[in-house]
Amino acid sequence: MTHPNFQHSRRIILSKIYRLGFSLVVAASCTLAHADSDESTDSLSIAIEGTVTALVGTDWEQPGHFGTLHIDDHNVSGDDGCNLFSGIDSGAEATGFVFAPSGAIKTGALWHLVTTLRACWPQRLPTIDLPSKEWASYELEGDRLTIKLRDGQSIALTKKI
Question: Does residue 35 have a pLDDT over 50?
Answer without folding.
Answer: no
